[in-house]
Fold:
Amino acid sequence: MVQKLVTSVVLLFTVTCFAQDEMPDHDITLFDLFITSDTINISNPVPVANRVGYENQPLFIDDNSLYFTRMEDVNADVWLWQMGHEVAITKTLESEYSPTPIPTRSGALSTVRVEHDGTQRLWQINSDGSFELLFSDIKPVGYHVWQEDNVALFVLGEPHRLEVTTLGQAETTVVDDAIGRCLALIPGTTTMSYTTEEEGYHQLRTFDFDTNESGELMKLPEKSQDYAWLNDKQLLTSNGKQLLWWDANQRVWLPVNMPKNLTLSGITRLAISPNKRRLAVVHHKQSSSLK
Structure:
């Protein structure tokens, strides 16, 4: 798929936080992930992206390879990290964020591109490195998630909106507003999840692409808005310092067992590898230490 973009065995990707006014100094750290019937543990921290500046929104393609966004100077580009090696996928005068494989287009990625005039739209990166505009009139796009040909879009505005559409269509359907930045497909389903902010908490909600039905799951813990699904019954989140997990059967938030000598602060984005053996964590550079 994406490996066609470069001759190296390594590829790198980028993703962004458009709703933020500033790009804080972030690191990405990779952990081994161990899941039992009643506990979740992480261990063996490995720095993935720890240059000075903005590095964010990791996305795994397998246990040892992930995409992320890196901002150097004023532009953001797509990178790929693989077993300690990294390479830029894009190097353009524009900025590319949120690279995501398009499920029904082999070798193609979608990316939110910030164009010369500041317009933010969803583009396709082809296997030869060329770009193709996917939806000309849907803007400004901040984040997105695919379910086959269907796509859910975080559209910036007052308030931000959740809109859905399908490849080849020009029109969207507004699903909800005042939404949070984290969109995710629930594994093994045709349902995506998102949040709305209510009384200082983020309420986790769902939308099913097949039935067009919406639902409500639970409130995320205080100070939480980013999350990642382990499966259709379990997910991870963070309150900024501690990782937490939720199980549909227990219906309670439990702490993830983290190394005792590990100190992380400002945890935001999380990503889980396809076979659930690795976890990528985005956290603040200045206030974190891996001892």
